[in-house]
Amino acid sequence: MSQSSKRTVHATPDQLRGAAEKVAPYLEPLLEHVLTQEGRGALAARAIVGTYLPQIHLLARDWLLKAIPRLFEGGTTTPLQSAIEGTSSSAGCWVLGNRC
After folding, report:
1. Residue 79 Cα distances to 48, 49, 76, 83, angstroms
2. Is 80 exceeded by the pLDDT of residue 93?
3. Residue 30 dihedral angles phi and psi, to the nearest 5°
4. What secondary structure letter does DSSP report for 98?
5. What share of the chain is helix, strand, coil (3-state, %, to 5)?
6. Which of these ranges, 39-43, 59-63, 64-68, has the smallest mean pLDDT?
7. Using CA atoms, how far apart are residues 100 and 92, in angstroms rounded to an integer?
8. What's the rounded Cα separation, in Å, for the pair 35 and 15?
9. What's the whole-model pTM score?
């Protein structure tokens, strides 16, 4: 493998902001849809949201900050009661600024 193919490319803050502005209008309705689901499929979908909290924070920060009460309602519970809590305790603390 050549040296050039091993290089890591980093985005600038302006590039990240631009990407977030383009993605958020598409991402936010999908996330809202996930939060309105019920049943077993909802648990899996919410678990995936919990897994990707840092990425969601990057791409849809305003939505995430507004949704935190819904995402973590009920406090610490079992993963079957709150799939987001079950998958994201460290990610949630990171998004909340390590206030956990």
Report:
1. 12, 13, 9, 5
2. no
3. -65, -45
4. S
5. 70, 0, 30
6. 39-43
7. 8
8. 29
9. 0.66
